[in-house]
Amino acid sequence: MNVSEIKNRLPDGPLVTYYGDDFTGSTDVMEAFTASGVPTVLFLQLPRPQDLTRFKHMRCIGLAGQSRGQTPEWMQSELPSIFEHLAAIGAPILQYKVCSTFDSSASTGSIGRAIDIGTAITNGNWSPMVVGAPRLKRFQVFGQLFAAANDVVYRIDRHPTMSRHPVTPMDEADLRLHLAKQTNRRIELIDIDDIAQAQSQIKLSNLASSDQPVIMIDVTDTVTQIEAGRLIWENRGKQVFSASSSGLQYALAAYWRSQDWLPCTTTLPTAAPVPCIAVVSGSCSPMSAQQIQWARNNGFECYRLNISEVLKEQTTEREIVRLTDLALGAINRNISPIIFSAEGPDDPEVLNFDVLANQVKLNRAEAAHRVGQALAEIMRRILDGSSISRVVVAGGDSSGAVGSHLGIRALTLCAGMAPGVPLCRAWSDDPSRDGLEIALKGGQLGGINFYGLIQSGRSSV
Asked: What pTM was estimated for this model as a whole?
C-alpha cells in the first residue's frame, strides 16, 4: 500500500504534531512512525512556512525540545506559544512527547504542567496518556510502569538507572501517584482488565468530561496497544492533547495497521559503513558506561572531558581545544574518537558534580549547561576540522545542546540502528551540515556494541 492509498483511508494532511521534551526521545517518535509507514519530520527549530512547504508530504511533524530539564515557570513561559504553533498545523492529535521512563518531578520537567498548558489550547474532553511501548521494553500494568535494563525488566522505582537518576529519580512506579504530584487535574486509568473485558470504551465514556481528565491506558502487548490506539483515534474529537511516550505512535500505528490503513510490514533503510565516527557523550547511565568500555576494547579512542576544567571559565577553552585536537588526531588515523564526561552513575565526576559546581559558584543546572555546551562546541570543531560524515551524541541533555549548536533545522530518518535510536539525516541551510548523519542516543538505549554498529552501518532493529 503506497502513501496515496493511506491518505484515502486516513484524513489528508498531518495526523500528529508533537513537541519532544528532549532530543533523543524526539527521534524515537520519528523512528516509530517512519518504521510503520507514516512519514515523519523532526524540526530542531520552530518550522518556518517554507520548511512546512518543503516537507508538506509528511504525516507527522515534530519539534525537538529540552523541557525535560526545565522548571514549571520556564514551561509556563515557553510552551504555550510552541503548542499553539503546532496546534495551528491542524493535526487532530497534539502530543507532548515524554520519555518512556517518565522521569520528571514537580520542579523539573513537570509533565503535569505541560498537560495543564496543552489541554487549555486543545479544549477536548479528555487527555489520553500512553507510556507503555513493548518494542522498547516499557510496560504499563494497572498503572505501574516497568522498564528493562540489560534485558531484565524492573519496576521503574527499582530500575538500576531511573531509580538513581541524578535530577529526576523515579521513586514511585504508580504513574497516577507520580503525576498527581505535578498537577491537580483528575487522573484516571483504563487498565488491562478493562481491555480484556471489552469495557474500555464504556469506561472512557464515563470518565471523559469538560474538566479534561488525564486518562492513562495500560499497554503491555499488541492487543492492548491496538486498543489504546483505537480509543485515542476514535475519540480524538476535533483535536486532542496527549502527553505520551512514543508508545502513542506505536499504538496508533498498530490500530491503523489492524484496519489495513497502513502496510502490514515495512522495512527501514540501512546504512553503509564509514571509516570512522565521532561521539560525544554526556550520559551517566550504566549502559553508556558499558558502551564506552566496549568501544575502548574494540579500537575506539576514548577521551575523558575534565569537568572541573570546563566549569572554570578561565580553563574552558583550553579543555575544548585539548579534546578537539585529540579527536581530530584520531580521525586523521581513521580511528573513531569518543569524548565522554562520565562512565556510569558511580563515576567520581558524577558523585562529586555538585561539589565541583559549588567551587565555581554554579548551581547544578548551570554547571550541566556548561558541560553540554562544551561537548557541543567540541563536536562543532570536529566537524569543521574533518570530513567526518556520521556522528553520535549520547544523553538527552547533551543531544539537545549539540543539536541546537550545529545549525541543523530538521531531521528525517536515514536508517534503523537500534530500537529507539535511528540514524538521522540532517537538513540545514548550512551546506557543510546538510546531509550529516547523526544519531541522538538516550543513555540507557542501544546494546553494548552500539558504537560499532553505527560505524559499520549494521542494525540491531
From this structure: 0.88
